[in-house]
Amino acid sequence: MTNIIALASDHNGVDQKISIKIFLSKSGYRCVDLGPFASDISVDYVDYAKQLGMTVASGDVDAGILICGTGIGMSIAANKINGVRAALVHNKVSAPKSREHNDANVLCLGSWINSLEDNLEIISLWLNQDFGEYRHVKRVEKIDSNKKDKIIFANGIFDLLHSGHISLLKFAKSLGDKLIVGINSDESATKVKNGNEPLNRENDRKAVLEAIGFVDQVIIYDDISPLKLMLALQPNIVVKGGEWTADEIRRRDGIPQEIDIKVFPLLGGYSTKHLIDKATAEKP
């Protein structure tokens, strides 16, 4: 799941935080300890939850772990920060589910509720569970309230539009203010389709997409890959449809780390090839 983990607590969580840091370091993670460092000096949990939440939301670390007496105050305070999805976890069932279903990026633990051994097991379960992005991405993205001024980019040939395309584009628009769609030119689309020309010319495909109310701009590009256009636009989020994970897409397409990737699940039974096959099938 992660490489760099921020840790913070209040005075009730200092002792467990020290042991958790040692455990994570031995497990190969890099830890950033935001304090406090003394269990005999009372501090306000809100201050440390806010500092860790802002660090996670900024992208400077991959995830965060907060510890106080119950974890409740920490989770409430951390979830006030845009971009933070803090999960209060007291058992081994909720730990992986908070990652798989909710894409939690902050784990809140209670030193009064669980022993160190139990919390270490919760941490291991949490860190080793990936987000189930195909099933849950649409729900999780509805949580994000910080969508102002975000540019969203999606791309494809978009030859014969179908419900799968529309659902993907609607989802993409829901993530930000401006949706830019890149489409392959006729020449590059033919290369992508292994020598088969698109049924509709590039300007016709562009005009159809521009007629969709939630599409803000359509750009034709000549390369097979949209990476050059993407780097010029510098979108906040790139939306892809398919069965790959965001990490797999980033490695495959060379998308920079500063651009977020959201994967929209394919709708079964919808594809341009399926439409063409259906339209050209011989009637009995």
Structural class of the helix and strand makeup? alpha/beta
Radius of gyration over all CA atoms, rounded:
23 Å
Q: Indicate how many domains the architecture comprises.
A: 2
How would you spell out the order of helices and strands?
EHEHEHEHEHHEHEHHEHEHEH
Query: Taking all residues together, what is the mean pLDDT?
Result: 90
How many strands, what sense, and barrel or not for the largest sheet?
A: 5 strands, parallel
So how many helices?
12
Proportion of residues in β-strands: 15-25%
Q: N-to-C terminal Cα separation, in Å?
A: 53 Å
Q: Can you tell me the CATH architecture of the largest domain?
A: 3-Layer(aba) Sandwich
Strand tally = 10
Q: What would you note in describing this structure?
A:
By secondary structure, this protein is of the alpha/beta class. The protein has 12 helices and 10 strands. The protein has a 5-stranded parallel beta sheet with strand order 2-1-3-5-4, with helices on both faces. Strands 8-7-6-9-10 form a 5-stranded parallel beta sheet, sandwiched between helices. Helix 2 packs across helix 3. 32% of the residues are buried.
Quick summary of this structure?
With 284 residues, this protein is an alpha/beta fold. Helix content is 40%, strand content 18%.
Features:
five-stranded parallel sheet, 284 residues, alpha/beta, Rossmann fold, 2 domains, Ribose 5-phosphate Isomerase B, Chain: A
